[in-house]
Automatic annotation (TrEMBL):
Spans annotated as Disordered: 1-34
An example molecular function term from Gene Ontology annotations: nucleobase transmembrane transporter activity
Pfam family, one: Transp_cyt_pur
UniProt-recorded name of the protein: NCS1 family nucleobase:cation symporter-1
């Protein structure tokens, strides 16, 4: 077995005339000879171009430390959405200790699931859509890739819009004349909104275009920067309110009995898991860069339970202090900064939450569709092209027109989001139970009918049948309870909170049952030097130079 070689990344040398390529040159050598940039993956001459580019191929080196993974989660948690979500849990009507228990249980579930989905990509050095080829087939993997990509595009637009709202506040405070741009509207968004949206759209695209190392450096400082501002804001608000006026219980109304609080706690746990379900599904896009699985697990421990709890406590302190300071409960950090109404606070807070939202957008909603869309047609769609498709698509969706529409979110993102559970369950069942943590890396890049992951013309029928069946049940669980309650037939609206768990459990169980009834996935020899064996402590097997 051979570990990934510590080669330096290839760089394209500018040349007016490319030297002739040797007859036995590998594909990435040919690309480099032509003066084109080469990605971080090692492409073998045996890899089929229809499945391969340098962004999807196994990495030549894996360098991310525990801190890089920790910083990834900081960027994912430290956002306006994360702030509002954490604050909302404390307003559910249950005691603060029950909220904290729910947070701990929910985020530990997320940590365990992230470790599960991290291992196959870290061990093989490939992103989420590629590792799915071992389960869905080399062509069938496009099904989960496209579903995850579409969800990310929709939320990419929403997060950019939220960041633009923060930027609007800065414009209105420091450029008073910009208020005149609030009236005219085009496609439902005023001129100032378009300007702010365009600025952030271009900034995110530029950051993404510079590649994963630039993104890594950005998230390394973005998360801590938000912490600094959050702590400063908490200290300021507490000093204004007085510590005796701070309450960790934001809920109104009479306290619940313990029996009545149990369903609420379960809903809070489900909300935490659902909130992280998107980045949790495609976490392999990032864990593939981890220098070891141990480093990834340590980063997940720091970034999820420890980081999320600390951020949640800071959130509730800030939100609680807004009651005595401003006379009302404010759970939106942008509105809190605006209410402070000092130029320095608005500038610092506004830019910080813009940075935070850009951070989560890049890691959760830009990188995923970049890999997912590239996987559909690797030679025509590079990683950068895939990301730009997502960026353009996010504008065409005009997220500002439906973000505040509960029905639109419920029936569009609700449907797509419900499919995340089955996709997660199938991947975990396929890799750990059926595949026994063994993957033949090279065969994920071949269209040969003799390839282990060719299945039936490139598709694993068991996986597709499971997605269709479990997905239908999960979608029904997500969208039907509300109209049934509105019609007065039956009130099971609580069931919608658990659509991810329903889909995940059913996807896992059904795929295992189908594979044992009619096996499709191969049982590989752990001693094969081309096979990555995740159940051992041996480094990732890529066999670049075999």
């Amino acid at each position: 077995m051979t570990a990934p070689q510590p080669d330096s990344p290839h760089t394209a040398a500018a040349a007016t005339t490319a030297p002739p390529a040797p007859a036995d040159a590998r594909p990435n050598d040919l690309v480099e000879a032509a003066g084109m940039p080469v990605g971080d993956g090692e492409v073998k001459a045996t890899y089929d171009p229809r499945l391969t580019n340098e962004d999807l191929a196994p990495l030549k080196k894996q360098t991310w430390s525990s801190y890089n993974i920790f910083a990834f989660w900081m960027s994912d948690v430290h956002s306006v959405g994360g702030y509002v979500t954490a604050g909302s849990l404390f307003a559910l009507g249950i005691a603060s200790w029950q909220v904290l228990v729910s947070l701990v249980v929910g985020i530990v579930i997320v940590q365990v699931f992230c470790n599960l989905v991290a291992k196959p990509s870290q061990k093989t050095g490939v992103p989420y859509p590629v590792i799915n080829r071992a389960v869905f087939g080399v062509l069938g993997a496009n099904v989960p890739a496209i579903i995850r990509g579409l969800i990310a595009v929709a939320w990419y637009g929403v997060q950019t819009f939220l960041a633009a709202e923060s930027l609007n506040i800065i414009f209105l405070k420091f450029v008073p004349a910009s208020a005149a741009l609030l009236e005219p509207s085009f496609l439902g968004l005023n001129a100032l909104g378009w300007i702010s949206y365009a600025i952030l759209w271009c900034a995110q695209a530029a950051l993404f275009w510079h590649g994963m190392e630039t993104i890594r450096r950005f998230i390394d400082w973005a998360g801590p920067a938000v912490y600094v501002v959050m702590i400063v804001m908490a200290v300021y608000l507490v000093s204004e309110a007085g510590w005796s006026n701070i309450s960790l219980n934001l809920s109104a109304g009479p306290p619940m009995t313990f029996a009545a609080s149990i369903p609420v706690m379960l809903s809070a746990i489900a909300l935490v898991v659902s909130y992280f379900s998107g980045p949790m599904l495609n976490f392999g896009d990032f864990s593939r860069y981890g220098r070891s699985f141990a480093a990834v697990k340590k980063g997940n421990l720091l970034g999820l339970p420890i980081n999320f709890l600390f951020f949640s406590v800071l959130t509730v302190i800030c939100a609680s202090a807004t009651v005595p300071v401003f006379g009302e409960l404010i759970t939106d950090p942008i509105a809190t900064v605006e209410a402070i109404d000092t130029p320095f606070a608005i500038l610092l807070g506004g830019l910080t939450f813009v940075t935070a939202t850009v951070g989560i957008n890049i890691v959760a909603n830009f990188i995923s569709p970049a890999f997912d869309f590239s996987n559909v047609s690797p030679q025509k769609i590079s990683w950068r092209a895939g990301g730009m498709i997502a960026a353009v698509g996010s504008v065409l969706l005009t997220p500002w027109n439906w973000y505040d529409n509960d029905e639109a979110i419920h029936y569009t993102l609700g449907v797509l989001g419900a499919l995340i559970g089955p996709l997660f369950g199938i991947l975990i069942a396929g890799y750990y139970v059926i595949g026994r943590q063994r993957v033949h890396v090279d065969d994920m890049f071949t269209m040969a009918p003799t390839g282990r992951y060719w299945y039936s013309r490139g598709y694993n029928r068991n996986a597709l049948a499971t997605v269709g069946t479990a997905g239908l049940v999960a979608v029904a669980t997500a969208v039907l309870p509300r109209p049934l309650a509105q019609l007065g037939l039956v009130d099971v609206t609580w069931l919608s909170s658990y659509s991810w768990f329903v889909g995940c459990g059913l996807g896992y169980a059904m795929f295992v049952w189908l594979e044992r009834r009619n096996p499709q996935m191969p049982v590989l020899d752990a001693d094969d030097p081309h096979v990555s064996v995740g159940s051992t402590d041996v480094p990732a097997v890529v066999s670049h130079h075999a």
